[in-house]
Amino acid sequence: MRAALKRELEAFFGALRFFTRIPVPAWVGHSQAQLDRASRYFPLVGVIVGAIGAGVTEAAALVLPVSLAILLGMVATVLATGAFHEDGLADTCDGMGGGWDTLQVLSIMKDSRIGSYGAVGVVLVLLFKFTALVEIDHEFGPPMLMWALIAGHAVSRCGPVLLMRWLDYVREDETAKSKPLAKAIDNTGLAVALLCGGAPCLLLSIPMAVALMGVAAVVLTSTLCARYFRGRIGGYTGDCLGATQQLSEVAFYTGVLCSFT
After folding, report:
1. Which of 37, 167, 196, 202 is the most exposed place for a label (fewest CB within 10 A)?
2. pTM (2 decimals)?
3. Angle in degrees, CA 118, 215, 90, rounded to 5
4. E strand map for the chain
């Protein structure tokens, strides 16, 4: 029992180290088995990142207009993750926008330089998130905004997990930045990920209809992303996972807003 608990803690801290800049205990160590299990805790990492954003937003709102507080909260989440997912979104936009065949798309996505498609994509997604969060606060108040930030980051990270379940990893080079998480997730890992992602919807006092609309929007977005990536490159890369998370987060906020129209 103790060994199993230690193994799961190592997997969680491995996910936290891989997806964020948050320090982890030195005893965690490194192993391929740990990284293989880390993906199941991707949504739980989202809970932590969302809580950071919500905490900064709430604190900043004490002395600043709510729009600036939301912007600072977004900055905090980007700093916490090192813009990991935004970078994936930019690379995916560049690859899908500038490439004609699979090899060309993958080559462009691997280039660390950002192009026009990537720049426009990231700016539009960040602007969409900011506007949606401002509208959530304006229409429903600060409690709903805090919940949306935490739940949005958690549920949106179920999207990449679903892609890992549905699609094959398409890069063969060992230098790919998301290679450690490229293996298919098993049923147990998927269940843990979905439970962690849904926890904020289940544990916080929010109308279930609102949560369901947000979750449905994420599932729809993940499905569309999976179909598109399968058609364009035959599977997914690490950048595709980052893009799916970003688009799923936007979709979640949109679903929350649509539930009250």
Report:
1. 202
2. 0.92
3. 5
4. none
Q: Which residue has the tokens 């289940």?
A: 202
Please state the φ and ψ torsions of residue 101, each to the nearest 5 degrees.
-110, 175
257, 139 Cβ separation under 8 angstroms: yes
Q: Which two tokens stand for residue 212?
A: 């369901």
Q: pLDDT (tens digit, 9 = 90+) per residue, 155-214?
A: 999 999 999 999 999 876 555 555 545 456 888 889 999 999 999 988 777 788 888 999
Integer angstrom CA distances of residue 61 from 8, 51, 68, 131, 145: 37, 15, 8, 16, 12
Residues 6+ apart with CB under 8 A from 241: 88, 160, 163, 164, 178, 181
> What is the 8-class DSSP label of residue 40?
G
Q: Considering its fold, how many domains does the chain have in total?
A: 1
* pLDDT (tens digit per residue) in 83-124: 999 999 999 999 999 888 989 999 999 888 888 999 999 999
φ, ψ dihedrals at 169, nearest 5°: -75, 130
Contact 93, 121 (CB under 8 A): yes
Q: Are 72 and 225 in contact (CB under 8 A)?
A: no
**Cα-based torsion angle of the residue sequence 83, 86, 90, 95 in order, rounded to the nearest 10 degrees:** 110
- Residue 164 makes CB contacts below 8 A (sequence gap 6+) with 39, 181, 182, 184, 185, 236, 241
Tokens of 220: 């729809």
* Token code pair at residue 50: 């969302």
Pairwise CA distance, residues 9 & 220, whole Å = 31
